[in-house]
Amino acid sequence: MVSEDQLNAFRLSGELVRVVRDSLESNDVTGIVVAWDDDSVMIRKRNKRVVKLSRTYIYIAASEERPNVIDEVNE
C-alpha cells in the first residue's frame, strides 16, 4: 500500500504518476494525485476526469520505468 508521505509528495509536486493495476500496461492509469483516504486515491487524468483507485495498487512516478507485475490467479 502506498504511504501517506509518498502521496503527499506526489500531490505537492504535481508530478504525473502511473498507477499499475495489473500486468497489462494498457490498464495503467496516469494522472495527478488530487486526494486520498484510508482506502482510495483520487487521480485526475489528462482529460480532466477524476478516477477513484484503490491504495493497494502500485503508485510510481510516470517518468520511472514500469515494474514487472505478475497477476495472481486464484483457481
Describe the overall structure.
There is one protein chain. This protein has 75 residues and is mainly β. The protein has one domain: Roll (SH3 type barrels), CATH 2.30.30.100. A hairpin with a 4-residue loop joins strand 3 and strand 4. The longest helix is centred in the first third of the chain and has 10 residues. It is globular, with a radius of gyration of 12 Å. The N and C termini lie far apart (24 Å). The model has no long low-confidence stretch (mean pLDDT 92).
Keywords:
5 strands, 75 residues, 36% strand, 1 helix, mainly beta, SH3 type barrels, 5-stranded antiparallel sheet
How is this structure best summarized?
With 75 residues, the protein is mostly beta strands.
